[in-house]
Amino acid sequence: MSRVGCKIGTLPTNIFVYADDIVLLCPSWYAMKVLLSVLEKHCVLLDLCCNVNKTVCMVFNPKDKSKVVCNNFPCFSVDGKPMQFVTEFKYLGHVITCSLSDDKDLQREMRNMYIRMNTLLCRFGKCSKKVKVRLFRSYCLCTYGTALWNTYSVNCMKKFRSCYHRYIKTFFGYDRLRSVTAIFLDLQLPSFDTFLYNYKYSFNMQFLCSNNDVVEYLVRIRL
């Protein structure tokens, strides 16, 4: 199957599986057609079926536009049901787009941050500062997927930074013109840059210690 799939170095990377989720990666329409036929055969052998309503296709065009072969492809089908082509999809909670931009995922996390802020304000708005700090550390510094952000617009990241600062000022009752540096020192909370750095550092440490063959190869070529 490595002939119709993708590779990282010499390692076939055309199939990724997590629990009951499967991702198929192929360099061409024909290769994906072959892998889907293999998937269907194994599903029959294992008495499994694919949920076509949650199965989509996404095309990642090369950065060099002169190498784009086609913009429209025939639909794929599984169990005789057609699959939809999409430009973005939420996979394992992370928003993936065909442009590989992380702006959509940044916006997702901003929405979640506002939801958490409003929930905490309604339920714990009158608590002491000490209690609020504990709640903030427990529920608001636990973001998802931030360590994976790599390609995003400056404007989108500025909005996320502003959201983080507004979030803290609102929850702890500070004046909107108060210096955020003074607020972080007063509350002993991480600044926005520190907040992102901590997640990336933790992810890198896990990345370097992984026993996965693909990850180990990526570590070698990165170092």
Largest sheet: number of strands, sense, barrel closure: 2 strands, antiparallel
Low-confidence segments, ≥5 residues, pLDDT <50? none
Number of separate domains: 2
Number of strands: 10
Q: What amount of the residues lies in strands? A: 5-15%
Net shape: elongated
Average the pLDDT over all residues and give the rounded result. 88
- Pattern of helices and strands: EEEEHEEEEEEHHHHHH
Number of helices: 7
Which percent range fits the helix content? 40-55%
Widest beta sheet: strand line-up: 1-2
Structural class category: alpha+beta
**Radius of gyration from the alpha-carbon trace, in angstroms:** 22 Å
Distance between the termini: 29 Å
What does this entry show, briefly?
This protein has 223 residues and is an alpha+beta fold. The chain has 7 helices and 10 strands.
